[in-house]
Structures are given as structure tokens and as C-alpha cells.
Write a structure and sequence with these properties.
By secondary structure, this protein is of the alpha/beta class. It contains 28 helices and 36 strands.
């Protein structure tokens, strides 16, 4: 019996920063078996994991891994690849100056990688042209914090979710985007009656635990919170003593807030006066109020002002720095906070120092041993790629991110990189839309192989430990940068024996010239040894005290990091989004995450389990909008803006706000044709933070009237490029394909022969078919050695096939007399159809849940869990289970 080893590490997904236990079988050869579960001792999650975290072991395959460096498409050695990067960077700098080179990095990187990248660019290349995809998710929060507090400080801790009497969720679908925090909040609500208000134009899954849902007009958050501040003033709820003692700017701030009447707030937010008054009074009369906000606030052309509008309400009432109260930004990426700590943004320096502060530049220059660091900010993400398009940046190094899909106006980003003289991409796979444009591809280590630290949304630093040997020639990101730095002549400054030495240097810099003037100081770890680093327990930076009133929380003493130690109340006024709907583009586009997918799916799309809930791109539309624009449920819709277009499956839902549509951000050309929502998003940005307005764009939608629709399950990955619409996903032991086209197809048997195969099965393959040309129906079932190796169904309407049943047939042994029944596309009457998968963890379908309610008598989500297991693991599906229970609990079995 093989032995197992256990490694304590950290999840690579959202900013919750969950602890993970990775158990690895010490196999003699081949890929070792890995089991993943939550770490019950980690204070971020106490053993909980979401559906994505629970499925991490299934994403570790090497089938798509980039294993060797390549230059100009040819595999090469590390020595040649590093030399190529170093020479091209040197030549570009010599000819055009340091501002002609840039790096674009990622919140997926570890803190040690991030630190070395910023030291390399800002300290030794001599340019601040290094920005990060975290610009797209939390830079407005950074800017708002700095304006209010003097530094980028998140005041609260996760425990505040359980100590608050009122939690206000603003622009945060916590149930899908931060599921473990959602479960902590849901438990607190059940145990102690915590009130929950959700402020979001959409009725998201998070609304299922809301006592009040405010479906405000998209982009009107400032009007709402200014109205709240005016109400607090009018009803005598301002903490006048705190405002006088601990803040500046009160008069101008309240003047801006009271410029709107209550009726103005009603008009601008589109909310009913009763609901608005209820929220205002609930906030006013509840002392322990926690306001949790995320991308719905940040991803706006007024994102920084929205952040300050929220902070103003907490400062004006003194509700900050104490248990269960304060503003709380929850970040999107696993190390967005760590990137902030080391100066990951183009306008920051390491250790929470300011690039445009001369004293801070002197500290960093002296510490790094360089003559100076740049005295002005570099180019923020959108501006950086504009500069590439304009030819001002001639060499760019992209690490651990996929800007061809994730940035706004993504087609322009693709065109910019296509004509850039020199593009380097470091990634774990060559199968991204960005990697396809690289002159040099460098293979990076992936989660499970990486070794370093990450910092979560509550400022808790955790070790991400390796438990797998790096495959092929993959190397850590920090190692790659150090080798290029060596070749460029910066040898001594980048000679690290391992990530522990980088962490120690980063820790030392946080204490340099600090003396309590900056919030971030982990200099106690400046002499950390390799042994202590390897054993490092999760720890939270920030104030420490003996009582729970201040432990881990900033600003309990009313002292801030401004020059006079007072917080700044910032006067803000509502302004509409940068794009405006009109006759040509009458709808508001909102983008975001879905429950089981992550970013551009380079990891999550590797496991079929995470594609059972949603397997293809979709556009969510209100029923009245669907009727107005001629859209059919499960049909296809083309979304257009002034910048591009995309095609997605139509999902009609009353949970969507009329006049708005929602499209997930995840699909790329690697998984679907014409489904990159980034191509549709306008490149509007916040003038202060530079964060794109991904939550509001003016678009149109029209039906994509296909002549035929197809659905297939196959053993081998089906091609995408030949179809006008196609979406491919792993399913069961193979793949599923949804596809459609407007041009008639006359050779379906030939297409079936190409699709329905598996390696080595051509000689024994049998294909059964049913064709009705008059009705446009074609069905094929392929077998080899008695096993089903593929199914294909075609019709003039969206194909009415039980997807989960069809997927289960792949690889099944089917007796010859039973094979023709597979052409029906649904199970026989004596075999229940589980329906669309709701619980990905236990593969429980909607029909099974409905049967448990109607026939089994389950009347609560918990009872469904006891019966089927659904919702008892990560809990991400509980809201959807709850809706099915509510819809069917009064039905009776016939």
C-alpha cells in the first residue's frame, strides 16, 4: 500500500484565501493521486471549500501544459530563451528608452514573484510600466482607501461578518464569487438573526438570504449612499464627536450629499421610496453595520467615488475599526492583496509606499541599491495596451494572465499584441488567446508546484506550498525574472537561494523608514530562515491587542495614516456611467463571474465537474426584453457594442433587471467561437484608479437565427473554428459540443463520421443514424467494441436532448438490441432523467431535487441535502436548491 503525504497550502482562486490540505500518494511512477479538502485549522475557511476549491485535484492534469520554452514557435533551451528576452529588452531600451518596455502581471502570481517583478522594472529597468490584471478588479478600492485613510488599508476582518447585526452587500454576488464567506454570513444569519441587505441591479443568488434587495439603476450607487448620508444627518445619527476629532472635510462632504433631495435619490436610483426609506432607517438604527463591496462598485468609471461614498457613511457614524462594523472590500484574486503589498500597480511602490512621494522613493532606492526609481506613475492596464497599439511600447512581458480576453475592447488588445515587435508570455499553457501571439513562451509552474505566499482580503498571509514536482522544464515566475535580470547585468540584486529569501527582503522593506507611519510592517520576518518559512503559519498583518475590540482591526483608535492622523471625508457627487444607452445600443451590459468557473478557464475548464452547471456562454435577459428583441429561451443571441460583438445562449430570467443583460466573463476562443465578452466591453475607465467600467456598457441584442442547431458528445475534442457558433466543454469521459449555423448543411453523415470517433476505433466503428430531411432532424450514435463513443443530434430548433443523460452514455457498453434507443436523445420511461446539474459536487440534477420535494416530501434545503447530499459540501448551490424547493413544495405527486 502506497504512503500518502499531506501538505498544507492555499486555494488559488478568489481572495478569500482558503486553506487547503493536499494529500498526495507517493506513487512509484506516473502522475500521483491527489486528494483535496479544506483545512479545518485555517482561519479563513475553517475547512470549508467552494465547488472550485473542492475540484482542484481534477485540474492537475498535464494534457495542455506548456513544458518547454519556445522562441518564434520553436522549442528551445532555457538558456536561449532567457538570452533572447534579455537581448531584446536591452536593445529596445538602448534604442527607445526604458519607457518602451513593459510588464503586465497578475493576481495569480505569488507575492515573491510580484516583488521580484516590481523590483526588476521599477528599480533596475527604470520604468513604472508594470501593471497587473488586479487593476481590473480592485484598483478603485485602493484609490478610495488612500483618499480616505492615507493608505490602502482594509480595516476589517472576516469575523466581522459573524459579529455584525446588519451586513450590506454592495455590488457583490457573494454566493457565487466568494462562496465560503457567503456560507459564514448565511450561518450567522441563521444563528443570530443578522440582517442582510443586497444592493445589486440583478437578483443574484446572494439575494436568497437578503431581508431587503435594492435593485437600483446600474451605476447609481453614489446617489444611494449620498442619500443615506443626508438621512443620517437629518435624523441626528452623525457621530459629531468622532467627526470633529477624527476626520477632515465634513462640511464639503455633507454639502455634496444634501445637494440631492430624497425624491432626487428615488429618481436616480430607480428604487421605490418605501424600500429606500427602509434601508436608510435600518442602517441608521443599527450600530454594528458591515458594508461589503466588490466589483459592482469597483468596476465603474466612478468606482473610486463610489468607494468613498460608502466610506463616508461609516466615518460619519464612527462605525469603523470595531467588531462587526466598517467598510470591507473583498478582492477577486488569490493574491490581489499581496500584489498591493509589493507595489504591483503602476502607480505604487513596494511596501505600501507611494511612487510620487520623494521620501518613499529615497527609501526604496537606498534599500534596493539603485540611484533612483521612476518619479512618475507608469501606464495603467488599458493605457498600457493603448501604448502598445500606438507603438510607444515595443516590448512587453505578460505573466499569468490573458489580456486578449480579460481586458475591455479585447479585439483592439489582440491587434495591439499582434503588431508589437516583441511579446513574451509566461504561463502554464500555450492554449490561451494571448499565448498564441507570443514571440517567446516561457513555461511557468502551476498551483501545486509553486512555493511562496499569498495575502487574502482580510490581510492574512498564508503559504502556498508545492506538493508536486514541476513537470518538464517549467520554472517559477520569480526564477525567470531573476535569470533575465542576471543576463541584463543586475546579477547581485537578484541572487536569491529561494522564495524564503525574497519574502525576507520584502518583509525587511516594509519596516524600512516606517516607524509606524505606514500600515504594512511585517519586518519581524526580515530574518526568516528557510526552515521557518517552510513552517510559516497563516498570520494577519495589522494592529494586535489583547482584547477582541481591536485585534486585527485598523482605526479603532481613530488614528489614520494621513499627515494629521485624521481620515478624509471625500465629497462625491453622482455622475452617470461613461457610456450612455441610445436607440442603436439600448441595453446595459453587465459582466461578471459565475459559480463554478474562474477567469478565462485555463484551470476550471479542465474538470468536467465544474462544467455540469453551466457548460456554455450565456446572455441573461429579462422576459419582456426577450420578447421585444425576438429572443427565444435556449436560442442564441448576438450582443453588439461599438467595439465588437459576441454570440451566446439566451437565458430568460425574471431575476434580470429589464433594460440590462448579463454575460459571464469566462469564455475565450479556446472554448467557444465568438463568445469573448471582452470584445464588447467599452474601454472606459475611472479617471483616478484607471479601473475599467466592466459593469456598464451600451449594447444591442438580436436573435442569431440559425438554420440548424447541433449537440454532440464525443471522445475526442471536437473542432470549433468551422462553426459560426460552437461551445466545447469537457463532459464525463469526453467532451460535449453545442453548435449552430445559418448556412444549410447537407453532409451530416460526413460530419458525424468526423466527430464521432476515438483513437484506434475507425476500423471497428459502427454508426447508427436517423435522418428526416423534411423536418431537418438528424441523429447519430457511434459504437466501437460495444461501447458508445459518440452521439450527435441536429434539429432546426435548439435540440431537445437530455444533456446529462447523453453524457452518461459516452463509454457505456450498450447491447446491440438497445443501441437504437440512444437516437431518441432521452432516457427510457423507466430511467429517471436527472435534469440540468445543480449541485456540481455530488452531480445532483434539478429533476432529482424536484422529485425529492414533490415525491419525497422534502420541504427545506437542509432536507434535500439529507436526502440527496446536494448542498452539503461547498454550499454554493444552496440558493438554487432553495428556489426549487419554494417553487415545488406545494405540488403533490400524481
Amino acid at each position: 500500500m502506497n504512503a500518502w503525504t499531506r501538505t498544507r497550502t492555499t486555494c488559488p482562486y478568489c481572495g478569500v484565501g482558503c486553506g487547503v490540505l493536499a494529500d498526495v500518494e507517493a506513487a512509484g511512477c506516473g502522475t500521483p493521486a491527489v486528494h483535496i479538502k479544506g483545512d479545518p485549522e485555517h482561519p479563513a475557511n475553517f475547512g470549508r471549500l467552494c465547488s472550485k476549491g473542492s475540484a482542484l485535484a481534477e485540474t492537475l492534469s498535464l494534457d495542455d501544459r506548456l513544458l518547454h520554452p519556445s522562441v518564434d514557435g520553436q522549442m528551445t533551451s532555457w538558456d536561449r530563451a532567457i538570452e533572447t528576452v534579455a537581448v531584446r529588452f536591452r536593445e529596445t531600451i538602448a534604442a527607445h528608452g526604458p519607457g518602451a518596455v513593459a510588464m503586465y502581471v497578475s493576481g495569480q502570481m505569488l507575492t515573491e514573484d510580484y516583488y521580484v517583478a516590481n523590483k526588476f522594472m521599477k528599480g533596475f529597468i527604470g520604468t513604472a510600466n508594470i501593471d497587473t490584471n488586479s487593476r481590473l478588479c480592485m484598483s478603485s478600492s485602493v484609490a478610495g482607501h488612500k483618499r480616505a485613510f492615507g493608505t490602502d488599508t482594509v480595516p476589517g476582518v472576516y469575523e466581522d461578518l459573524e459579529l455584525a447585526d446588519l451586513v450590506v452587500l454592495v455590488g457583490s454576488n457573494l454566493a457565487w464569487c466568494h462562496p465560503v464567506l457567503y456560507q459564514r454570513l448565511a450561518a450567522a444569519r441563521e444563528e443570530r438573526g443578522t440582517k442582510v441587505v443586497v444592493i445589486d441591479p440583478r437578483a443574484t443568488a446572494t439575494c436568497d438570504i437578503a431581508d431587503l434587495h435594492l435593485a437600483l439603476e446600474p451605476g447609481s450607487d453614489i446617489a444611494l449612499f449620498n442619500g443615506l448620508l443626508a438621512h443620517l444627518q437629518a435624523t441626528g445619527r452623525i457621530d459629531q464627536e468622532y467627526v470633529a476629532r477624527a476626520t477632515n472635510g465634513w462640511e464639503n462632504t455633507i454639502d455634496a450629499a444634501t445637494a440631492l433631495t430624497f425624491d432626487d435619490v428615488v429618481a436616480q436610483t430607480g428604487l421605490g421610496s418605501d424600500a429606500l426609506a427602509c434601508f436608510f432607517e435600518l442602517f441608521a438604527t443599527t450600530q454594528r453595520v458591515l458594508t461589503v463591496y466588490s466589483q459592482g462598485v469597483n468596476q465603474s468609471s466612478a468606482g473610486t467615488d463610489k468607494v468613498n461614498a460608502i466610506i463616508n457613511c461609516h466615518l460619519a457614524t464612527g462605525r469603523i475599526g470595531r467588531p462587526g462594523m466598517g467598510p470591507f472590500s473583498v478582492t477577486g484574486q488569490p493574491n490581489a492583496m499581496g500584489g498591493r503589498e509589493v507595489g504591483g500597480l503602476a502607480n505604487m511602490l513596494a511596501a505600501h509606499m507611494e511612487l510620487e512621494d520623494s521620501a518613499h522613493r529615497r527609501i526604496v532606492s537606498k534599500f534596493w541599491g539603485v540611484s533612483s526609481v521612476p518619479d512618475r506613475s507608469g501606464l495603467k492596464a488599458v493605457d498600457l495596451f493603448n501604448a502598445i497599439a500606438e507603438g510607444r511600447i515595443k516590448a512587453v512581458w505578460i505573466m499569468a494572465t490573458n489580456p486578449v480576453d480579460s481586458l475591455p475592447d479585447a479585439d483592439a488588445v489582440r491587434a495591439a499584441l499582434a503588431q508589437c515587435p516583441f511579446v513574451v508570455v509566461s504561463d502554464i499553457t500555450a492554449r490561451t488567446d494571448t499565448a498564441e501571439l507570443a514571440d517567446v513562451l516561457l513555461p511557468s509552474t502551476a498551483w501545486g508546484e509553486k512555493d511562496g505566499t499569498v495575502t487574502n482580503s482580510e490581510r492574512r498571509i498564508s503559504r502556498q506550498r508545492s506538493f508536486l514536482y514541476p513537470p518538464g522544464q517549467s520554472r517559477p515566475d520569480w526564477w525567470q525574472i531573476c535569470r533575465v535580470a542576471d543576463r541584463m547585468g543586475f546579477v547581485d540584486a537578484f541572487r536569491y537561494a529561494g522564495p524564503h529569501e525574497i519574502f525576507a527582503e520584502h518583509a525587511a522593506l516594509t519596516g524600512a523608514g516606517n516607524d509606524g507611519t505606514r500600515d504594512l510592517d511585517i519586518s519581524a520576518h526580515a530574518s526568516i530562515s528557510r526552515q521557518d518559512y517552510n513552517a510559516l503559519e497563516p498570520f494577519q498583518w495589522g494592529p494586535r491587542a489583547t482584547d477582541a475590540e481591536t485585534n486585527g482591526r485598523f482605526f479603532a483608535d481613530g488614528k489614520f495614516f494621513t499627515s494629521d492622523k485624521r481620515a478624509n471625508l471625500v465629497p462625491v457627487r453622482y455622475r452617470p456611467p461613461a457610456s450612455a444607452v441610445d436607440r442603436e445600443f439600448p441595453l446595459v451590459l453587465n459582466t461578471g463571474r459565475i459559480r463554478d468557473q474562474w477567469h478565462t478557464m485555463t484551470r476550471t475548464a479542465k474538470t468536467p465537474k465544474l462544467l455540469t452547471h453551466v457548460a456554455e456562454p450565456f446572455v441573461e435577459v429579462h422576459p419582456l426584453d426577450a420578447a421585444e428583441y425576438g429572443l427565444e429561451p435556449a436560442g442564441l443571441g448576438r450582443v453588439r457594442s461599438r467595439f465588437g460583438s459576441m454570440i451566446a445562449r439566451v437565458s430568460v430570467s425574471e431575476r434580470q433587471r429589464r433594460g440590462s443583460i448579463f454575460v459571464p466573463m469566462h469564455w475565450t476562443d479556446q472554448h467557444a467561437t465568438a463568445a469573448r465578452v471582452g470584445a464588447v466591453v467599452a474601454p472606459n475607465t475611472d479617471p483616478i484608479s484607471g479601473q475599467p467600467e466592466s459593469k456598464y456598457g451600451a449594447v444591442s441584442i438580436e436573435a442569431f437565427n440559425a438554420a440548424w442547431y447541433g449537440f454532440a458528445v464525443t471522445c475526442v475534442a471536437p473542432p470549433l473554428a468551422t462553426y459560426e457558433y460552437a461551445a466545447r466543454a469537457r463532459a464525463g469521459i469526453g467532451y460535449r459540443l453545442e453548435f449552430a449555423g445559418r448556412a444549410p448543411v447537407i453532409a451530416w453523415p460526413d460530419i458525424a463520421a468526423d466527430l464521432l470517433t476515438r483513437p484506434g476505433a475507425a476500423s471497428e466503428r459502427q454508426i447508427l443514424s436517423y435522418c428526416d430531411e423534411a423536418r431537418g432532424q438528424h441523429r447519430f450514435a457511434a459504437f466501437a467494441g460495444g461501447e458508445c463513443i459518440g452521439l450527435l443530434y441536429v434539429a432546426r430548433e435548439p435540440v431537445p436532448v437530455s444533456r446529462s443523460w447523453a453524457i452518461d452514455q459516452l463509454g457505456a457498453v450498450v447491447a446491440p438490441r438497445e443501441r437504437r434507443r440512444l437516437l431518441a436523445g432521452r432516457p427510457s420511461k423507466d430511467v429517471p432523467d436527472q435534469g440540468a446539474i445543480v449541485c456540481a459536487c455530488f452531480s445532483v440534477g434539478a429533476n432529482e431535487i424536484v422529485r425529492a420535494v414533490v415525491e419525497g416530501g422534502c420541504r427545506t434545503t437542509a432536507e434535500v441535502g439529507q436526502c440527496l447530499g446536494a448542498g452539503t459540501n461547498c454550499g454554493s448551490c444552496r440558493s438554487e436548491i432553495g428556489r426549487l424547493v419554494n417553487e415545488h413544495r406545494f405540488e403533490t405527486a400524481v
